[in-house]
Amino acid sequence: MNYIEYTFTVCPSVPGLEIAEAALSELPFESFTIEDGVLKAYIQEELFCEEDFNDMFLWDLPDMEISYEKKIIPQQDWNAVWESNFTPIDVDGKAMVRAPFHKAPDSGIDIIIEPRMSFGTGHHQTTYMMMQHLLSMDIEGKDVCDMGCGTAVLAILAKKLGGKNVVGIDIDQWAYDNAQDNIQANCTPDITVKLGGADALGDEKFDILLANINRNILLRYMQVYCDAIRDGGHLLLSGFYVPDAPVLIEEAARYGFKMAGAIEKDHWTALHLRKE
Length: 276
Prior knowledge:
single chain; 276 residues; alpha/beta; Alpha-Beta Plaits; Rossmann fold; seven-stranded mixed beta sheet; 9 helices; 14 strands; globular
């Protein structure tokens, strides 16, 4: 599987880069980085649609100049790309996400993630906030599902926090394989990983369901996610910007969920909702 790397230069860069990232997040782009005034966005080559890309509202915005470069990254080269940029992530001094070639922390939860093209290393704001939510909750003995698990970093954290039955689900074969490798690297082999979408939930019920995906997918499958959570259970959502939160809260409320908390970071947000 090849990936496409888009490198965007926007003038003015503030708030231009954030607006560009918001527009691209409506398409199946998997990860973004903003560094030195440049936005880089990555998408699977097979998921890229030229028509959707050209139809973005981004190109019609007045008083904004946008240019970009496009590069194909072969799958076999991605490890080298990530390893050159991967730095350990310290989540509030309670957990560290690192690559195998980094030194283990002296204390706290240690999570090893193989740096590959699977979303979820803690570098993105949404993954970081979802980890913050989990670290603030009582996970001991709970059944947890990580929808769109990517690297399985959230599933691994849930297991290390005492989760009982922990399941990760992802529709992407590359993410599925990476999740399996990370589970072995973290000595958490009893985490179950399933290849598929919302249908992979089946009739199974959970105390906590995590979904760090994107606004449109969350809205489309909200009822399925909510039905998979036991009464009194928790739904953690991220993958969207602060202005998108009200519509997701409203949709979850249709299935008996009320707000229990929210975290914001760089205009992204992560919601904690509880089933009445």
